[in-house]
Specification:
single chain, mainly alpha, globular
Length: about 425
Amino acid sequence: MKNNYYNIALIMGASIIAGAINYAYYPLMLQYMTLEDFGVFGSIMGVLNLIGVISTGIILFLNKEISKNIWDTGRVKYIFVASLKILSVVGLIGTLIFWMFTPLLARYFDVSEYGYFILIGTTIFLSFVSTVVQSSLRGLKQFNYLSFSQIIGPVMKLMIGIGLVYLGYNIYGAIYGVVLSGLISLGISILYLKFIFQGTSSVGKTSELLKDFRNNKKEIIKFFLISFFFALFLNIDVIFVQNIFDATSAGAYVGIAVLGKFLIFLLLSIETVYYGQILEHSKATVPRHLILNPLVIMTLVVVSALVFNVFFGNFILHILKPELTEYFDIYLWSLMYYGLLAYMSFFSKILVGWNSNYANKLLAACSILLVIVVYTLGTSSLENFIYSFVGVGCITTILLAVLFYFELTHVKK
């Protein structure tokens, strides 16, 4: 029991530190870039964040498979080696497909440099390989190393990225910081696993794991979709803004979004604490306080953040970039939107955890609605742009809350 508490504290502490460093990367980049360049960088990072969820679902599947065989090192090595072969090929194919769309992406973002997207495309391959490595480390309960790797990656990203941008590599430097730090961190982790498996023979065939993947494809797809839709709502604003508005307005919005997303970082940490506890229970037996407590706490945090920023938001924006103070009202509305996303994440992830068949369908419909509303009503000004996101965010949150309520009460009756 003490080991469990130690591991939880270790991973949570490392996650908070890593999250803070990752978050700090963007404001620091803004200090060295013009608003126009930062807008391009932020939009490309939005694409990167969407790419990052492609392998979600596979992580959960591999965690489960490795945990079941944790006492059989030969079997665990087989899962690691077989999944590494399979997902390396999938990642390589994904990268090649992404590269094929590079001209379209460059045209959409109105940038002439294809190299940005070539670099980002490599992260698809890295993402799939990293999925295998991280799942193996978690399944083997290598929590000390996991906490180390969670921190060392962001630290290297900060050092490489800031160093290259300072030397004049600008957007390329910031992207290289992300890609190279991921590559180095991944290489270190693979060497660590190689050391663990040293002298152990692999027990199993790759075809067995392929069969397991096929048998669990519904579960894998379900968790991928919920992660994808949330990532879409979280990042699509910085992608759309680069396509719709001029470079200065887009850069200002992305700079504001960077600051506003810190609220999500705080709110999702609340969800993380309660999510596992809620899913330990069925819909029929979950205690009421496990549902109400996180919702009340999140509401208090959102209201507190809005009140605080009404008085001090201008000062914070001025520190980040003096030009951003002109967009103070938009900043407050963006905080409201990111606050809504926390509720959307909470309701949708628990619904999927309870095997709801409607959460992903609802998010898919609302995603389509968001695109339609933004491109019909939100293109005339940044104000209308953020109003579109807040409006659809409110509708989606209310619908998810109603679905959550009916799922819960229907079972209890």
